[in-house]
């Protein structure tokens, strides 16, 4: 697995994953592979219907090895947790490692907005954050990836050639330095490699 | 210095290249505001407060927090506008339709079983969508005449807007859709409650007569009355844990014993000191009942 630039650093604290149109199957595949003892909290911000509160967690849970939770406001971000931004709320991370939710206006026509999850997570986790941006139809997440890179976090986008809709990964590539451009299977391999190294 | 330092751009574009706002900057800002205007933003949730401040800086092209501090220090007239800009005023009628169903089927009948009248406080009422939704529900239950509704917000400009009971036509599709979901009947709309004029939807005045609006700051303001029901949905998400505890104490003190507190669907009392003075009535819709003084 030499293609992955894990280098010396494996002391990551969290993974944020953004996705929109065309990312659902990649997310379910990832959740079906990541083992239940994967330590890092994984924070998903996926574009979803604003006024459908229930159903998405259940759909993602079918094949997942881990329980998926829509966090409540001020809920602590836990090791081992998998979180999904709730419908019609922005999901942010606060210093002190808790979630905070917000109902401000749409950002990039989205609520939840990937940019807000990524930006606030970058501020809290600094260079200990891994940001992954999957297929999607707008530019949400590009600014967030830029903020992650500014803090020296690790940035990964889904290969635009593989993405069903490549606007989102392409926008991120234009906005900032991306450490790795990977196919979904390689993103999963990367997380599994990281998992094994952390277990050592 | 330019002759008019405060000009707002009407098309908001975020400046993606602006440097991060530091916590130290925000501290200086909240300190100045506290000293000069006696508003306390110190315990607002950092991520959203910072975002709102960045928005103001971009909107007025201040570029730095220092510039904003100077303007606030030298231009008292600007302060009210500033409060309006940093307050989040995104709301809709019948937001979370399933909550309104629980309210109509369980909560309101429960209160009215034991009382001839009902008093309700909408804390953080924004442009009024929630309190007017309440008026519609009460009207449909035939008890609006028995109700006293108080709606408060920190932002005077939004209170003035709420008093007009007038909404942009473009919002009415969503408002009506929520209302249809509330009744579990997509054919029902809000049309009968509004008339249209000048591209706006104006609520029938008979729905507004039992509502009083007033400016009230949950952070600094005191307890002004007691209520059977307090709704404070998606307001405390903008506060940190310390401030949430402080505000919850006030909401608790503003409720009669066995009164109901309703918060946003993704909020919780779990982490709050006062949780043991309430029981959960409906966890999905975040309805709590005060059981201890």
What topology does this entry show?
The complex is a heterodimer of chains A (200) and B (293).
Chain A: E1 14-19, H1 24-33, E2 42-46, H2 56-61, E3 68-69, E4 82-84, E5 90-94, E6 98-102, H3 114-125, E7 129-133, H4 142-150, E8 154-158, H5 167-175, E9 180-182, H6 184-199
Parallel strand pairs in A: 1-2, 1-7, 2-4, 3-4, 7-8, 8-9
Antiparallel strand pairs in A: 5-6
Chain B: H1 23-37, H2 46-59, H3 65-74, H4 78-86, H5 97-114, E1 118-123, H6 129-140, E2 147-153, H7 156-163, E3 166-168, H8 169-182, E4 194-197, E5 200-203, E6 211-215, E7 227-232, H9 241-253, E8 255-263, E9 278-282, E10 287-290
Parallel strand pairs in B: 1-2, 1-7, 2-6, 7-8
Antiparallel strand pairs in B: 3-5, 4-5, 8-10, 9-10
Helix pairs in contact in B: 1-3, 5-8
- Summed up, the helix count of chain B is 9
Structural classification of chain B: alpha/beta
The first-level CATH class of chain A is given as Alpha Beta
What is the share of helical residues of chain A?
A: 25-40%
Basic shape of chain A = globular
SSE run of chain B: HHHHHEHEHEHEEEEHEEE
CATH topology grouping of the largest domain in chain B: Rossmann fold
CATH homologous superfamily grouping of chain A: Methylesterase CheB, C-terminal domain
Largest interface: A-B, 27 and 32 residues
N-to-C span of chain B:
56 Å
Going by CATH, the architecture of chain A would be: 3-Layer(aba) Sandwich
What's the overall average pLDDT of chain B, rounded? 94
CATH architecture of the largest domain in chain B: 3-Layer(aba) Sandwich
- The portion of residues forming beta strands of chain A comes to 15-25%
Mean pLDDT of chain A: 94
Structural class of chain A: alpha/beta
Largest sheet of chain B: 7 strands, mixed
| Helix-strand pattern of chain A | EHEHEEEEHEHEHEH
Q: Please give the radius of gyration of chain A in angstroms.
A: 15 Å
Oligomerization category of the chains in this entry: heterodimer
Q: How is the biggest beta sheet of chain A arranged?
A: 7 strands, parallel
